[in-house]
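Schema walk-through. Below, the input block comes first and the output block second. Nothing else is stored per chain. Lengths vary across the set, and this one has 282 residues.
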Amino acid sequence: MEKVKVKKRRVYGPGEILWLAILFLLAALILYPLFWILMSSFKDYNGIYGDVWGLPDIWHVENYMTAWNRGISQYFLNSLIVTICTLAGVVFASTFSAFGICQMKGRLGNFVFLFCLCGLLLSPQVCLLPLFMLLKSLKLKNTLLAMILPYIAFRLPVSIMLIRSFFVGISKELEEAATIDGATLMQIYGHIYLPLSKPIISTVIIMTAYYAWNEFVFATIFVDSSKLRTIPVGLMVFRDGLMTEWGVVLAGMVISCLPIIVLFLLMQKSFVRGMTAGAVKG
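--- output ---
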């Protein structure tokens, strides 16, 4: 007679049950406000104040069109331009710098690496006045570059640290074999290091995009024009102009959150792999 395999049900101990309960509670604390904002964005004024916690009786999809037409579209476009340019600058400069540091022999490489990490000691708030004067003297104030350049500068130290830590773990035999075949340093950088570093680059992309998309202080001080406002500053002005139309305001908030949420969902596996690899190597 054939033996029938019976799968044993996993028995959770008291400690595991406690941790699961804590995790479910934390997940609810994070997800429920997002769910409330999403549901409330489909309500009108009476729907929000009449039934705060309930689902919409009438789904006001037009709230999203109203929010988009009243200024969110311009703020969204500005944030998209700033974020993409910041990402391009950070990814190129950090990967190139980390590769150069890895090629330096002896103490020189460690010294340059530590010098790059000194940027982590600089607080953006402390640098506000010098940056303001510098951008004004260069006639970059009230332009998108007034946000892009500082964003790149302040994201480079941590990006170089993560990517360099990953580059150190790449086998030197691959580089030596490529050198024997006549590959130049640029070819080694482009055909060996970059393809193998997709997880850590994905991590840098997500962290940088989150920072550039949500940064508020520089965007408020360095830009005065209403046509150049990004999402965080624009939402503040948007909210003040629509104090009674909370459904439209919440719709604007949902629109502003979507790009970062979609980016993380698309790259979450690489993000986790990159964080763990960058943390244990080097």
